[in-house]
Amino acid sequence: MSAIVSAEGVSQVYEVKRGLFAKAAGLKAVKEASFTVEEGETLAIVGESGCGKSTLARILTMIEEPTEGHLTIDGIDISAGRSSDVKRLRSTVQIVFQNPYGALNPRQKVGAIIEEPLKINSKLSRAERREKAKDMLAQVGLRPEHYDRYPHMFSGGQRQRIAIARALILDPKILVLDEPVSALDVSIQASVLNLLADLQDRLKLTYIFISHDLSVVKHVADRVLVMYLGRPVEIAPKAALYSEPKHPYTKALLSATPATNPDDRGERIRLTGELPSPFDPPPGCSFNPRCPHANERCRTERPVLTEHGPTRVACFAVDEGRI
Amino acid sequence: MPLLTIRNLTVTFDTASGPFKAVDSFDLNVDKGEILGIVGESGSGKSVAMLALMGLLPPTATVTADELAFEDHDLRTMSGRERRRLIGAEMSMIFQEPMSSLNPCFTVGFQIKETLRIHLGLDRKARQKRAIELLESVGLPEPERRLSAFPHQLSGGMSQRVMIAMATACHPKLLIADEPTTALDVTIQAQILDLLVDLQRDRGMAMVLITHDMGVVAETAHRVVVQYAGQQVERQPVETLFDEPHHPYTAALLSAIPERATGDRLPTIPGVVPGQGDRPDGCLFNPRCSRADDRCRTIEPPHQSDALGQALCHYPLNTEEAA
Ligand SMILES: Nc1ncnc2c1ncn2[C@@H]1O[C@H](COP(=O)(O)OP(=O)(O)OP(=O)(O)O)[C@@H](O)[C@H]1O
Ligand SMILES: Nc1ncnc2c1ncn2[C@@H]1O[C@H](COP(=O)(O)OP(=O)(O)OP(=O)(O)O)[C@@H](O)[C@H]1O
Ligand code: SF4
Ligand code: SF4
Ligand SMILES: [Mg+2]
Ligand SMILES: [Mg+2]
Hints:
The structure holds two protein chains of two kinds.
Chain A: E1 3-16, E2 25-38, E3 42-47, H1 53-60, E4 68-73, E5 76-77, H2 83-92, E6 93-96, H3 100-103, H4 110-121, H5 126-139, H6 156-168, E7 174-178, H7 186-203, E8 206-210, H8 214-220, E9 223-228, E10 231-237, H9 238-243, H10 248-256, H11 296-300, E11 306-308, E12 311-313, H12 316-319
Helix pairs in contact in A: 4-5, 4-6, 5-6
Chain B: E1 4-15, E2 18-30, E3 35-40, H1 46-53, E4 61-64, E5 67-70, E6 73-74, H2 80-86, E7 91-94, H3 98-101, H4 108-120, H5 124-137, H6 143-146, H7 156-167, E8 174-178, H8 186-203, E9 206-210, H9 214-220, E10 223-228, E11 231-237, H10 238-241, H11 248-255, H12 294-298, H13 319-322
Parallel strand pairs in B: 3-9, 3-10, 7-8, 8-9
Antiparallel strand pairs in B: 1-2, 1-4, 1-5, 5-6, 10-11
Helix pairs in contact in B: 4-5, 5-7
Bound molecules: adenosine-5'-triphosphate (2 copies), iron/sulfur cluster (2 copies) and magnesium ion (2 copies).
């Protein structure tokens, strides 16, 4: 296997106005993220709401350019690459957006939505496009008569399937899936996850799978990247992450996952403490205000990703053998 | 007297290809202070039924019901004005798509304060104070600064928390939460569910919780209603639902949960929810049910007894356990 995506020190800063006269402040949504994605694997990204997962997804799909760092996709450095190479990459990497409703044009019929990428990126005739779109509708479990309907006539879950159909229509190599099944009921979730697995086997697709549902991640991922406040804090093969989570935040995530057993109610460990603000993150380790193992060093220095067996983790307590 | 009574609710949309019944003979009782979970296939009419109750459907929808009552108010005969006063104050809703239910043209602060002005008549200063408290209560960092943010500047989970803050602003007696934690990470989900459960316990607020996350249902709900193709097919206390489902659809849904599955493909339910042209005779689930026989294909099943979860089925499961 070789890396199809490699990110080095990628950061994204948004200028956010805080009032009519106040000076704009820089909000670092993603900070110095370095990681690779191997060809054909599923890398899952999990983390707190607002920790920068969707921002990272937009960077990886070249919707936004990172303000710092290097991103190489399929051998092409996108900040230095020729524009023709970057253009080719746009069909190599496709995204399924988190909010399927906002992502679907309400004035376009479903058929037109799914065919649109083909219109721009292929030379297929109208009839061929139509056939391919109908085929794709069937693949994602929708019905042929849905071709002529508008997005508002669909349920949340059905819209997500439309978005998946559109992302798949160009036969991409890399698919960025931003919470692809969180709006779906479990039976359709199961069929979409199976569909994604089949497509991956058949087409050797690489997935970057963003999700907050750790039981879904456990089912699909090869490796897992845990983010906290814009930074990767733990990157590990799935088995290692679930059997031996290292970072205190990863541990909290695993224990907060609700179990489908009503008898287990109320046994989850709650994190306490304020959610830090992305405008001025706490000094030292970003997790320190909520971390049960924080000490003085955690409040002043920032831990970096360090190898511990198969896992890379950014935590002093792990480095020092305290936990 | 139940807080909310819905009997034989039917919603039909006028579509280009003829009338479409999105909700069919839907019944629901919600008692004061209880948490009722609703689960079911995407597109089974859960959101539409709740929007009908709130009077928020577009004019293409025709709503009929034998009974639609909130306490002693008959919602069918109420004037639009009376209904609007009730909704937002006594009964409010968190929508499935926070992004599309927040108005993109106004700041978050303006939208919350408008709700407070209309329903509680608070003055300017009190509104500002209450708005900050509300955002704090849903765990949004830097509430004061977030008040001047526009919805597109928030992450998915943050907008969902803003929606929750707005919906609980007036201490409603009934909160309808349509996928309230779908976009959130589990540590925040745990926090939000705790918040909602606290509101329910301390103020006796009743809650209808619509979700695809069986873990959330298991941990939060008291009773569970299972919907299929616009119909209620089962209703049970949460303690017994997971071990002793009585309807074959419920059983299939439970076995598709990744946590319970073994192997790299998940069990799915073959086929799709019936569409407008192909509603089968007899039991609506029969084309997808492994137990279906001629009786199921010709005769509409009855509701079984309460002990059998009122299963809408000729051949309910787990009958020995229930006896
Ligand atoms: N266009 C923008 N302008 C300003 N700030 C932004 C913008 N987009 C995102 N942000 C901020 O960047 C941070 C990261 O947002 P992002 O949407 O990437 O989070 P996320 O991890 O996807 O969260 P969620 O799980 O809730 O979807 C948040 O604090 C958000 O408010
Ligand atoms: N405005 C509309 N016009 C026509 N059909 C509609 C309209 N709104 C919804 N529908 C249809 O009504 C059915 C029920 O939709 P609804 O959104 O209630 O499903 P749901 O059970 O909430 O699904 P999900 O779990 O995916 O949110 C769907 O088949 C949908 O396509
Ligand atoms: S570095 Fe310190 S504060 Fe950060 S996670 Fe580790 S122990 Fe906790
Ligand atoms: S009535 Fe028959 S087809 Fe319908 S759910 Fe029961 S066994 Fe299956
Ligand atoms: Mg996101
Ligand atoms: Mg819905």
